[in-house]
Design brief:
5-stranded parallel beta sheet, globular, alpha/beta, Rossmann fold, 10 strands
């Protein structure tokens, strides 16, 4: 391939990156992967070890003469190893896009996503307590509901290697309230023409998944890129978790082993989210101390996060 990536979106998770990817896909001068939004090349050691050429062939084979070429994987921001892999592979001139969302509301959205995926079965407050006590950790910091919202330290870590001019920051709340102006600035940063946006696409909006038991043999269709494949479910019943795009996730355990967990997750999904008073309290106690420095660093007025 003659071209390589010249921009990359690295976060934050649950902050509108899927919406931004959808907009980029519709822009004639921007290329992002079509069939999979998040390649997870730079944050996954196994994928990275396969080599950059294979990555380009898998995700950028349809690249044409677009001016801006890139991808969006929000796990890159909180993954330390990703920074140096990006630097060694793409060089010091790579451009970064980062969307920042109110960190408590981001955490709530993150938590609900994991409930829907059946990864989480604790209450929100207990999940935060377990995170603070470091009782659940993995290489991807999957359960870092508040950790992923500590943007200041993560951005500073990237700035140890890359110049500040390489970064374009977007406030999620500004994107919702004034999307045309925000996107015009983003297009300018990427060096592409402005494009009129009639309506902001809403993706990953927190729609609850459908949880289905299969008591007998059942055919399930898994769809990707418009093609469907039938798989045969085993007898005894497995649990199927259908996400908002109609795809399915499989939990390879008999139903009797997950029934109690499923009931608890359903209950948690039906619970009300923390109210505004609780959200403001959590923000003041855990994040507001970084607000001024983060605003100065990013050029964003983050006072909007107070008393939402």
């Amino acid at each position: 391939m003659d071209k390589t990536l010249n921009f990359i979106g690295i976060g934050a998770q649950k902050a509108g990156t899927t919406t931004l990817h959808s907009i980029f896909r519709s822009h004639p001068e921007i290329f992002v992967p079509v069939f999979q939004k998040e390649p997870h090349f730079f944050d996954d050691e196994a994928k990275y070890s396969m080599g950059y050429d294979d990555y380009l062939l898998e995700f950028f084979a349809e690249l044409g003469d677009e001016k801006a070429v890139g991808e969006i994987t929000p796990d890159l921001l909180p993954t330390p190893a990703a920074r140096d892999r990006i630097a060694s592979t793409l060089g010091e001139n790579i451009k970064f896009i980062i969307i920042l969302r109110h960190p408590v509301q981001r955490a709530i959205s993150h938590y609900k996503m994991y409930l829907n995926w059946l990864w989480e079965s604790e209450s929100f407050d207990n999940a935060l307590r377990m995170e603070a006590l470091q009782q659940r950790t993995d290489a991807q910091n999957s359960f870092s509901y508040f950790g992923r919202g500590r943007y200041l330290s993560q951005i500073k870590f990237y700035l140890e290697v890359f110049h500040r001019k390489n970064f374009h920051f977007i406030c999620f709340e500004d994107l919702l309230n004034n999307y045309q102006s925000v996107l015009d600035d983003c297009f300018d940063f990427l060096g592409v023409s402005k494009m009129n946006i009639d309506e902001l696409p809403r993706a990953n909006s927190g729609k609850k998944v459908q949880l289905i038991h299969f008591e007998k043999d059942a055919n399930v269709k898994l769809g990707r890129a418009g093609q469907e494949n039938n798989i045969q479910m085993p007898k005894g019943g497995w649990l199927i978790n259908t996400d908002y795009k109609g795809r399915v996730r499989l939990i390879k355990k008999p139903i009797q082993m997950v029934d109690s967990r499923l009931k608890r997750i359903k209950t948690l999904l039906d619970e009300e989210s923390p109210n505004s008073e609780r959200i403001n309290e959590l923000y003041e106690n855990h994040f507001q101390k970084d607000e001024e420095e983060l605003s100065n660093l990013t050029g964003l007025d983050l006072r909007i996060w107070r008393n939402l």
